[in-house]
Model the fold of this input.
Amino acid sequence: MARVSDRPAQTYHEIELREPVSLCDSRARLRPEAAGWSRQPLHTLNISGHALRKKKWNYWCVTSDRHLFSATFADLDYLGVAFVYFLDFETKRFIEETVLVPVPRGRRLPDSVRGDIMFHGRRLSLSFREDAEATRIRVESPSFGGARLSADLRVLRPPEHETLNVVIPWSRERFHFTSKQLCLPASGSVTLGDDRIEFPEGGSFGCLDFGRGVWRYSTFWNWGAFSSVQGGRTVGINAGGAWTDGTGLNENAIWVNGRLSKLHEDLAFEYDRADLMKPWAVRTPSSERLDLRFVPFFKRAAKTDLLLLKSEVQQVIGRYSGTMVPDSGEPIAVDGAVGWVEQHSARW
Done:
């Protein structure tokens, strides 16, 4: 096993933002005072210019102890991408549908975390609609793995629930804002043909990966996450690496009952690149804040090759076990929490 990044792990002095701030200046460059993190979205995402370099997406994933359902819409500045996938943990039934839109005209994504998104196509339609309390995720497809798909899920947004909002500053010209929102209570159902799959209230969680930024052409990242009830508490993590190395900021955090503890150090992702189905280790090498073992039970691979656009994602779904230590200093045991971890390389 090997850590993906060749750089030594670093600990950062990350600035916590507490007041609203605009992301960009009048010349569409990153404002230095916008580089930091916050517990609620505070940034005005006024990104303009940077032709073909802007990348925006809303990725939703809802999990229960038995199933996973994910829906995403992304705007790559010259191409729109909608994709949806479903996994039954016991039977390993897996279905995925991807639709490419050559020019996402009229489908530009909102610049706020709580904006509505609608996409309607012949093969796939999806919507993420906001109300005061929740996000409603609806997906329809006439033939999803040979069966009609109708998904209707609701993810609550408790007002006191803290989220991880970070600006990664590669430079004034290249930067990315991400809002990672985990441990959100979810419920609803996914209907596949004659089968109705329930995501029960009290045992299901939503995860949002919201991204808006100006990217370099070539990039690589690791990303892992889970939301779970452990010992009567709702806990979760967001774990990222490689793409943030050396920037002074990262996207690493722990949640306990809606409260966020920021991890101010790079993580080590230790795994066998030749066989991602072998166990992984995800840990903080400079401290004991995070020490997790991840055992996969399913691998998802998605590849796009359109000359100048190349993307390959290998995502493994499985279970986390180990310990994590929030800001309170009390170690929390994790045993069999459903989640995922991935490696992603792109030229886009």
Q: What stands out?
A: The radius of gyration is 19 Å.
